[in-house]
Amino acid sequence: MRQGYIDDVEWTVTVQANDRGAAVNIVGPGVTIRRQINKSRGFIYHAYFELDPELQGKGIATHVLESTVKLKNKTGISKVTLNANIDVGGYAWLRKGFFPSDGLEDLLAEARSVARRTQNRVLYEEFEKLSKRMSQKELRGYFLSDDFRKYKDLFLGTMWNGETNLNDPISETAFTKSAKSAYEMFARGIGTPTTANEKVLSGLVRHQTYLMRYAAALRNGSISELQDTEAELRKYLMYFADGMEGISVTSKEAEKEFKRLEKDIYALREEAWDEIRDSIPEEMLAYAKYEAGATLAIIEGAFPVALGLQPLSADHIKRIVSAQPFEGRTLRQWLSYNQQIDTQRITRAAKMAIVNGETPTQVARAALGTKQLNYKDGKARKAFNDIESVYLTVTNGINNQIKSDLYAENSDIIDKVMFVATLDVRTTFECAGNDGKVFKLGEEPKPPLHFRCRSLLVPYINPDNLNRRGFDASTEKQLLREFSEENDLGQIRSYDTLPKGYKTKYNAWARKRKRELVGQVPATQNFDTWLRNQPLEFQNEYLGPGRAEIFRQGKLTLDKFVTRDGYELTIEELKKLAEKA
């Protein structure tokens, strides 16, 4: 973080961690940051953040906020809380997408106090009248607008507890970029899912995109092992082809030599394949544990009630990893199968070239490809796509098995699941036919349904299943505030202070609100539409800045970014395609 700001100075970083979470303190010249990660309650708390004046405006704050988004993507914890204070914080955090945890009344009380102190009562009365005509969603958007700036003096120096949810694309854009960019999204109607079931759907869909990224990272590590064998393999193929000069390709001697060819190719690639397979068990176990925790955090963080979901045990997760997640093979078994196909493919290409009377150089090119085409025309590189397909398919199999077992472990409240097939750019008819369907738990088709299947299972929680779950503290405050405003009861801080005769009425009203907050089955949308509703930063991260810019022009849908055989088009190819569109 210090690069470009402060060099050659001492920084102190301390971390305290336990089963419930962690606390991180970072102290450097002119910089103090304290952050708490409460894993058990599902939030990240910005406890303290201060910069000396000479360091302000240098991008440090942006870096800190972006790191929180990365932390959210890794942990699944999207709720961020803070105490807004210290000079401009009471105003600045509103512009960063935060909203007072205790609602509008708490914020108005602070602004009213500032107005008395600064003799700005007229400005305050104008804001109060304006704000009370708005819903909370409208008010959140208004805080991001340029018009809100005229009320800045009312909020400088105010103190309030606030929170934001980074699963909301508007909140994330305000958090990491600017209020202006976030307001533009708000004005276009892009915003946070409003019900808990919608939030779970959106959160798990976004998390699934990081599964694809993870599978790609595994692929990249594996293909480097295979690439390292190609120079030696090229030399051997040229040597072997040269030795076949003068030998009839139909003779028994040639038959014997071709058998030796296959054995030698297998041996030349064997060490690389062994290295790939040996790294898998530990990698998959760590991945599975992470997926189990992240899924729990996404679901629990979305609901206004204390779900108290039961996690999977460590032994249960190990059993999932060691099982056969796709067509009766484990990941190690699939890689062994790919090794055999790889050997046969290279051998067949070299043998065919020799039979056709090609030169040793041509034989090597037939198997390994040409530099001009980045060796994509060779048979050896086909293994790269095979590995990617296996990693993506099997990791998604583990991912969905964890979800299915987690849902079954909590079947008292999760009795239905929805099949979501929006993540595959080239969605198969089988997945498309199931997309958006809700199945009784245990009767759902379990992804992967085919190679490179990216579909997932999302829980649908019926509000009627939550009758025994109480609201969490922040939601209880929110509901009491809504109920008291509707019934002109003044400020009600707790259930016990409700006037006589109103508790029964409140209980009936709260049950109705619980259904509204949890929501019914959310509608699904294709991946192209979903991605267009994500923050610019996420689009850039997922597609890369160049492709994301072309995507935002709206001339090409996402399925045009790849060929039918799965190759990504270059930026130049996409530009030409967009010009013709």
The total beta strand count reads: 10
Low-confidence stretches: none
Compute the separation of the termini in Å: 43 Å
Q: What share of the residues lie within helices?
A: 40-55%
Structural class, from helix and strand content? alpha+beta
Average of pLDDT: 85
Q: Biggest sheet, in brief?
A: 7 strands, mixed
State the strand order across the main sheet.
Answer: 1-2-3-4-5-7-6
Notable characteristics:
single chain; 581 residues; alpha+beta; seven-stranded mixed β-sheet; three-stranded antiparallel β-sheet; 10 strands; elongated
Please explain how this structure is put together:
With 581 residues, the chain is of the alpha+beta class. Among the domains are: 1-63, no CATH class; 204-390, no CATH class; 472-518, no CATH class. 53% of the residues lie in helices and 11% in strands. The chain contains 22 helices and ten strands. Strands 1-2-3-4-5-7-6 form a seven-stranded mixed β-sheet. The protein has a three-stranded antiparallel β-sheet with strand order 9-8-10. A hairpin with a 2-residue loop joins β2 and β3 (31-38). The longest helix is centred in the middle third of the chain and has 32 residues, at 196-227. The protein starts with 11 loop residues before the first strand and ends with a helix.
